[in-house]
Amino acid sequence: MFFPQSPKSTSTKEQTTITSTVDNLQSLTQPQSTSINSPDSQPSSTVNLNDANSYQKEMFAFAEKHRSVLNQILRGNNQSLESNAFAILTHFPKLLDFDVKRKYFHKELKKVDSRDRNRYRAEDIAIRVRRSHIFGDSFRELHRLRNSDWRSRFYIMFEGEEGQDAGGLLREWYQVITREIFNPNYALFINAPGDRVTYMINKSSYVNPEHLDYFKFVGRLIAKAIYDNKQLDCYFTRAFYKHILNIHVKYQDIESEDPEIFKSLEFLLNNSIEALGYDLMFCVEVEEFGVRSSRQLKDNGSKLLVTDANKQEYVHLMCQMKMTGSIRQQLNAFLEGFYELIPRNLISIFNEQELELLISGLPEIDVDDLCVNTEYKNYTRTSQQIQWFWRALRSFDQEDKAKFLQFVTGTSKVPLQGFAHLEGMNGTQKFTIQKDTRSQDRLPSAHTCFNQLDLPEYPNYETLQKMLLLACRECSEGFAFA
């Protein structure tokens, strides 16, 4: 198993060796370069599949082995990712660090902007709004714009206030309007029950007659903030980020959106339906405005019994209905607006954790504050593994600390009043480390609804540090739905 390492300095000789090796590999894969994706993807049918897979595996293995060194080189010369031998690494975004991807992303976005400016005359656009009606005024002002106008510089004027917008008013506008996106009066988003911090699309948003126009506006707004390199104080569920990136959702993603359904599905997967004597069909009861009805998950679902042989299909369809089908119209409207500014193929270089960091920024995490506000189960504060854990976490850079927080809580959002006020599904829920007695070969696992980390009793610091870092970077557990 590959263990990620912290970035390190490299000698000129080592850099030259790696560059030469990448050049050689690229010369082999050049005919396939437009068709090769990461090993998790399906190769294009336009190339020889055996050759493509061989080159793909060779390149991936090499990049994986030298991941920290390659990223260190790219930090010093990010231009390399666009034009020379290193360009092929964009086919393996999993191996690129977030800061490297972010620089590449913004450079590519500028290229898109330059092409558009050749077709359209770019001018600053004045946006006049009232503070007390900032969402409605902004919607009406911006609704009249062409798609290309959204790439222009916005010049914000708050009605009744003096002041020239040299950038400060634009930042303030982003801050204020972001809060209004989640205003219950618009019924667009609701708090996720599993963590009470992140937001999810309100499936009943249709109570607002303009909800689809609003969702398209919000999609454009968030894309515009990314385009302008402005951070927003907004955090969404993992499934929402995956929808933007066109990543398949997993059944674990429903935990924050519907903890009870998650527990039921997990129990179903881990136990024999026949032994339990369940009489479960491929349909589900839904309730809207106090009216209950039955919804079929597939044709004739009300007559199809769930068995151990087909229960994974049932879980798949249930999650699709809950996380996608019930909000399909709203989601499509949001994505239509978002992709008008940010190309789908470009944003896909990020994973869902990194997309949150791109939108909301890297947080400053006070490890000492987290340590003081941590509880332990079957460990104590003086346990050797706990001492190693805090040493390991302090060794992480800012990006990996943010990914750790995402891993254990479901979001990179730091509580405003410190970790003593960390929220869980039942209110304030301190971070908890529980001993995992199953195997020392397991990665640490997390229960985000309870802000809990299950930490195996690793035999030494090096193993704990590597396993923890791998878990935070990969966040891989369970199965994904195709």
Structural descriptors:
4 domains; alpha/beta; two-stranded parallel ribbon; 12 strands; Hect, E3 ligase catalytic domain fold; Hect, E3 ligase catalytic domain; mRNA transport; 482 residues
Residues in helices, as a percent range: 40-55%
The residue-averaged pLDDT reads: 85
By CATH, the architecture of the largest domain is named: Alpha-Beta Complex
How would you write the strand order of the largest sheet? 7-10-12-11
**Care to count the β-strands?**
12
How many individual domains?
4
Q: Could you give a short account of the major beta sheet? A: 4 strands, mixed
- The helix count comes to 19
Poorly predicted regions are 1-8, 31-47, 476-482
> What's the CATH first level of the largest domain?
Alpha Beta
Distance between the termini: 25 Å
Query: What structural class do the secondary elements suggest?
Result: alpha/beta
CATH superfamily of the largest domain: Hect, E3 ligase catalytic domains
Please state the CA-atom Rg, rounded to the nearest Å. 24 Å
CATH topology descriptor of the largest domain: Hect, E3 ligase catalytic domain fold
Strand content: 5-15%
Shape: globular
Pfam family, one: HECT
Enzyme class: transferase
Active site: 449 (glycyl thioester intermediate)
GO molecular function: ubiquitin protein ligase activity
